[in-house]
Automatic annotation (TrEMBL):
<dbReference type="InterPro" id="IPR000831">
    <property type="entry name" value="Trp_repress"/>
</dbReference>
<dbReference type="InterPro" id="IPR013335">
    <property type="entry name" value="Trp_repress_bac"/>
</dbReference>
<comment type="similarity">
    <text>Belongs to the TrpR family.</text>
</comment>
<dbReference type="GO" id="GO:0005737">
    <property type="term" value="C:cytoplasm"/>
</dbReference>
<dbReference type="InterPro" id="IPR038116">
    <property type="entry name" value="TrpR-like_sf"/>
</dbReference>
<dbReference type="GO" id="GO:0043565">
    <property type="term" value="F:sequence-specific DNA binding"/>
</dbReference>
<keyword id="KW-0804">Transcription</keyword>
<keyword id="KW-0678">Repressor</keyword>
<keyword id="KW-0238">DNA-binding</keyword>
<keyword id="KW-0963">Cytoplasm</keyword>
<dbReference type="GO" id="GO:0003700">
    <property type="term" value="F:DNA-binding transcription factor activity"/>
</dbReference>
<dbReference type="InterPro" id="IPR010921">
    <property type="entry name" value="Trp_repressor/repl_initiator"/>
</dbReference>
<keyword id="KW-0805">Transcription regulation</keyword>
<protein>
    <submittedName>
        <fullName>Transcriptional regulator</fullName>
    </submittedName>
</protein>
<dbReference type="Pfam" id="PF01371">
    <property type="entry name" value="Trp_repressor"/>
</dbReference>
Amino acid sequence: MKDLVQFLTEVGDEVVLEKRLKALLTPNEINEMQHRLQIFSLLEQGVPQRDIAKQLGVGIATVTRGSRALKELKEI
């Protein structure tokens, strides 16, 4: 994990960072990460999990995993 973090953070240019992410991830993986960020945002706005799942077209389990991940981030 340390190598990955270093690989992504050693660049100061957003364009280069985007290229590195595209080199590492499939389009589907990028889409899943974008969904996770949307889930985080909607959860922070107080939107109910079932509404988030319906709005984003993802399963309730995906939203629940996002909710747990967001709680872990807040504990840091």
